[in-house]
């Protein structure tokens, strides 16, 4: 803490106060982001692609998919809710959104979005039919 205060006092001489405050906020934000993600990302070479798995702090998978050597998202990507249930199935080709994506919501509804060359060409909302078991008692 003393080191941080000395650094701030030294920076006050060089940087105007508004810029100093902004600089400190940015530095703290980056350190927080890297601290949380450093141990929760796993990257493994898989042929010509890199398989990426990102984990929640509880150990469950947050996202899983593949990247090209140029760090472009490629092929199928899956996102999950913190409880492990599927949130989204997505497809990429060299970093661009392509194909049919499925978004799964906690209320059991699904949205199907079709992409072509990174642009939405169709959106469908699919409602799950309610059964007698899921309907509240009257």
Q: Which terms summarize this structure?
A:
disordered C terminus; 25% helix; alpha+beta; disordered N terminus; 138 residues; 2 helices; 9-stranded antiparallel sheet; 2 domains; 9 strands; Histone H3 K4-specific methyltransferase SET7/9 N-terminal domain
Structural commentary:
This protein folds into two domains: 2-37; 41-126, Histone H3 K4-specific methyltransferase SET7/9 N-terminal domain. Helix content is 25%, strand content 43%. It contains two helices and nine strands, in the order H-H-E-E-E-E-E-E-E-E-E. Strands 1, 2, 3, 4, 5, 6, 7, 8 and 9 form a nine-stranded antiparallel sheet that branches. The protein starts with a helix and ends in a 12-residue tail after the last strand. The model is unreliable at 1-5, 26-39 and 133-138 (pLDDT under 50).
Global shape: flat
- Helix segment count? 2
**What is the second-level CATH architecture of the largest domain?**
Single Sheet
Let me know the average pLDDT.
77
Short description:
The chain is 25% helix and 43% strand. It has helices at residues 2-14, 17-37, and strands spanning 41-46, 49-55, 61-67, 73-80, 86-93, 96-97, 99-104, 110-116, 119-126.
Protein topology:
Elements: H1 2-14, H2 17-37, E1 41-46, E2 49-55, E3 61-67, E4 73-80, E5 86-93, E6 96-97, E7 99-104, E8 110-116, E9 119-126
Antiparallel strand pairs: 1-2, 2-3, 3-4, 4-5, 5-6, 5-7, 7-8, 8-9
């Amino acid at each position: 803490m003393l080191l941080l205060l000395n650094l701030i006092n030294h920076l006050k001489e060089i940087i105007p106060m508004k810029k100093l405050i902004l600089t400190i906020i940015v530095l703290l934000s980056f350190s927080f982001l890297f601290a949380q993600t450093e141990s929760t990302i796993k990257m493994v070479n898989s042929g010509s692609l890199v398989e990426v798995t990102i984990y929640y702090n509880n150990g469950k998978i947050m996202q899983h998919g593949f990247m090209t050597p140029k760090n472009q998202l490629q092929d199928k990507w899956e996102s999950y809710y913190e409880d492990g249930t599927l949130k989204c199935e997505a497809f990429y080709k060299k970093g661009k959104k392509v194909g049919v994506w499925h978004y799964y919501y906690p209320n059991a509804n699904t949205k199907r979005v079709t992409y072509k060359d990174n642009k939405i060409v169709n959106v469908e909302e699919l409602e799950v039919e309610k059964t007698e078991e899921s309907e509240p008692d009257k």
